[in-house]
Amino acid sequence: MAVYTKVDDKTLADFLSRYDVGTALSFKGIAEGIENSNYLLETTQDRFILTLYEKRTKEEDLPYFLGMMAHAARAGLPSALPIHDKSGLALQTLKGKNACLISFLSGVSVDDIQPGHCRKLGEALARLHKAWFDFKPIRANEIGFEGWQHMAKATAACADDLHAGLKYTIACELDYLANTLPKNLPTGTIHADLFPDNVLFTGDKITGLIDFYFGCTDQLAYDLAICINAWCFDEHHTFVPARARAMIEEYDQHRTLTPEERTALPILCRGAAMRFLLTRLYDYQNPVSGAVVSPKNPLDYLKRLEFHQQIKETDHYVV
Amino acid sequence: MAVYTKVDDKTLADFLSRYDVGTALSFKGIAEGIENSNYLLETTQDRFILTLYEKRTKEEDLPYFLGMMAHAARAGLPSALPIHDKSGLALQTLKGKNACLISFLSGVSVDDIQPGHCRKLGEALARLHKAWFDFKPIRANEIGFEGWQHMAKATAACADDLHAGLKYTIACELDYLANTLPKNLPTGTIHADLFPDNVLFTGDKITGLIDFYFGCTDQLAYDLAICINAWCFDEHHTFVPARARAMIEEYDQHRTLTPEERTALPILCRGAAMRFLLTRLYDYQNPVSGAVVSPKNPLDYLKRLEFHQQIKETDHYVV
């Protein structure tokens, strides 16, 4: 959570005058995301999120992220929608930062995850992937295998301080993944960070998909593997088969997995566990000053990795 | 700002079932206050603030603060109102913390302060004081003169690291105030922290008075002196006479200042400047872990103190 950049009332009023959205009735910094500053804004017309992009979000990537969101929203998915100003621009400058006014979405994040939630998530993920089939821009995944190698190097010196043998475990796993990760599965635009925090439910219905700032072009089934890691383990980091079954089955209902994707799922899950193990380890060693969210425990993802290492066939996820 | 205590969706649903307020549609941690955790909650019925009181707010004081708020709201002031549960209780326990559901108030804090805002503030402050005439509970001001002496002692060793001569300036001022601070002015319940952050405007109208957690029993004119310090200096910490005149005149219109209060105003303003100089100096030396708000500059209040030291008569504030 963070509000790094303060927006005063006069600056806000000037900013809103660029749009046809009315004037401010309420404006509160919110604890959402650790990368950017976010405000919940209520105007005389509607509610919005105002995001100011801080330095970790690259300026050149913003049109891509906003495009992803707009594309998904136009396809009928409950994605946040960038609002255009009177001259048709979505991306703005505010207090010297890139900024965007985004539609507000109702709903709450789910902590007590049930298989029914995973079913809905599987459907939403498949529908996102399909909606993005005709989203043309390409963005490389900066946190793909090469990125993992860089992070493994950057974190190696201190990895064992956190957990004895971690450096060796990471090195061995990277060797294994180098030889086994599939390269020719169907690709497209992926969310790449669709954790429970980024999905808002109203009752049993998904009413909000947010935080597209890791979006990129990659293998679609890798996005599913990220969600299996994020949604299908309980608070003790124990795998919950009913959640995975519901998610995978429902994804498959809405976008049929190819036989190659099915076969690759255990390896992709190991890759996804590795990705979050490494980024959490990196963030743990390099905490962001000013962020209130305390760094998440990297070892939660070591446990997931160890689980996936035991899985030889995708059927084990869906029994 | 802060969200120290995370409330998951199931805990929230259980909590809301104690009330007649509907079920959650949206729930976001907000960056308000540095003492407590605050959430903006929208239910099927209305919007609310959920506050979880962290350790710096003493449990035994909470009924007093909630009583102040309820009393002001019942008198027609736009104060946040504690919501009672089905059994009539306002103060609750949630995630092991004291907690309260409070009415949501529209409006935005003003940064570009105009004399008109100060006029409204003067009126609101006088109306608060009058509304609290029949609020019977008593709470000593913990940050009164004795509190200042303790903080002066606690900060003395490092004060000159921030500003050469600061320790001596503080000691001399405390000596002066010990002999000059009035003791027999009209007393009552005061807000004691009615900074621009704690006042929400919709257009020219005050639609929200919040954050009563420094409320106490003290001399009423001292509350006005706090507001003069908080509202009547520009961003360069230069006194703006038109703001003070508007505030003091309008206060006097709604609660007539006694001749003794008028005479004492310069001394009370010195005391109020001293209070915030000392608490800021203390917070600067003892930052709260986990708070995103960076400590405020104590020297802003040294400048105000130096200004008030030049003022010999209250008329100088209202020319």
Query: How much helix, percentage-wise, in residues of chain A?
Result: 40-55%
Instruction: Classify the beta-strand content of chain A into a percent band.
Output: 15-25%
| Nearest-integer average pLDDT of chain A | 93
Q: How many individual β-strands of chain A? A: 9
In DSSP terms (H or I, runs of 4 or more residues), the helix count of chain A works out at 10
Oligomer: homodimer
**What's the Cα radius of gyration of chain A?**
20 Å
CATH architecture assignment name of the largest domain in chain A: Alpha-Beta Complex
Main sheet attributes: strand count, strand direction, barrel closure of chain A: 5 strands, antiparallel
Which secondary-structure class do the elements of chain A indicate?
alpha+beta
Largest interface: A-B, 31 and 31 residues
> What is the H/E order of chain A?
HEEEHEEHHHEEEEHHHHH
Compute the separation of the termini of chain A in Å. 37 Å
What does this protein look like?
The structure is a homodimer of 319-residue chains. By secondary structure, the first copy, chain A, is α+β, with helices and mostly antiparallel strands. Chain A contains ten helices and nine strands. Chain A has helices spanning 9-16, 62-74, 115-131, 145-162, 166-180, 220-231, 241-254, 259-285, 299-310, 315-318, and strands at residues 24-30, 37-43, 47-53, 91-94, 97-103, 187-190, 199-202, 205-209, 216-219. In chain A, the strands form three sheets. Chain A has a five-stranded antiparallel beta sheet with strand order 1-2-3-5-4, sandwiched between helices. In chain A, strand 1 (24-30) and strand 2 (37-43) form a beta hairpin. The longest helix of chain A has 27 residues, at 259-285. Chain A is globular. In chain A, 45% of the residues are buried. At the A-B interface, helix 1 and strand 1 of A face helix 1 and strand 1 of B.
